[in-house]
Amino acid sequence: MLRDAVRSLAEAKIAPHAAAVDEEARFPQEALDALTANDLHAVHVPEEYGGAGADALATVIVIEEVARACASSSLIPAVNKLGSLPVILSGSEELKKKYMTPLAKGDGMFSYCLSEPDAGSDAAGMKTKAVRDGDFWVLNGVKRWITNAGVSEYYTVMAVTDPTKRSKGISAFVVEKSDEGVSFGAPEKKLGIKGSPTREVYLDNVRIPADRMIGAEGTGFATAMKTLDHTRITIAAQALGIAQGALDYAKGYVQERKQFGKPIADFQGIQFMLADMAMKIEAARQLTYAAAAKSERGDADLTFQGAAAKCFASDVAMEVTTDAVQLLGGYGYTRDYPVERMMRDAKITQIYEGTNQVQRIVMARNLP
Ligand SMILES: Cc1cc2nc3c(=O)[nH]c(=O)nc-3n(C[C@H](O)[C@H](O)[C@H](O)COP(=O)(O)OP(=O)(O)OC[C@H]3O[C@@H](n4cnc5c(N)ncnc54)[C@H](O)[C@@H]3O)c2cc1C
Hints:
single chain, 368 residues, alpha+beta, four-stranded mixed β-sheet, four-stranded antiparallel β-sheet, 11 helices, binds flavin-adenine dinucleotide
């Protein structure tokens, strides 16, 4: 029922704008409005804070179905979870009430600020600093590649509070867009997910009350990594949705397109490609849903399974979307058809929330 409802909404209100959002590299406001009106913009927020209380699998299905129509739009529910999960996992009750309530209502989105210009895969090498000053912390630094920066009201920021302790000297904070000293860079000009703004976040003597720290001092990096264990599964869901969208489009196209006097779908070479695409998507789906169940239960092998789902599903998305372009021939290579956009959008799923090389490092360190 959830899948049907989200699919209908995405087809009616999100898909019609996907090409323009990509072409104009503009924020998918129509998608945000439609998702918020239907309580699908941050479905993971628990009911006690006014949220929909969706479990990890339901959240995956929402993201998957939105991504099937528009990958940029799927980053609304996905990054709302990424940005706010540190608060849900490690924040005080007051912090949860203060920030989950407006998020659930649709009054403000959440972003996640881990990466920096010189700290990507090696995120613990970050330089952004937070220095205690009485009942306040003062933050200085630059966060890079922040999804939905400038649009979001709230930012989970990881910053160094003790430079002698590397990852154990990093703490997490909630920073608000309206805090004095917060500003944003120009939107990055990207290959894909062009509707999702990616910007730098500048923190210039941002003075915030001490109770904005998420969890205890020095636990920010652990919280950031624990968050990714859960949210890599949402990137797997995004990848899965993009791949399914490409397969569905290609499946229809090959019935219509005639060469040598018959639909190209009649050629076995085409049928075998479609069979492989569907097989890979189904394998990615099973891995992703199983990982979502593990996320919900907090299973001990979640770290491996989350990395495996993200790595596998994103590689599948890249293969399937590339094959979809191939199935449309020259037409597939143009912006008159959606598979070209889907192929560009798929690429990012192999890069963010840890590149697929990093996922392999994570898996190797956590072999079942
Ligand atoms: C569109 C977009 C949105 C993003 N959104 C966010 C966000 O909202 N919040 C956030 O915090 N970050 C975000 N990121 C950042 C993203 O997570 C990083 O780009 C990613 O982790 C890689 O870091 P890097 O770009 O510095 O690459 P690098 O770390 O410089 O990596 C370069 C290459 O080296 C490889 N490599 C690095 N180390 C190793 C190793 N030990 N072994 C093998 N290979 C290795 C990598 O796999 C990659 O192929 C986003 C990025 C993009 C492009």
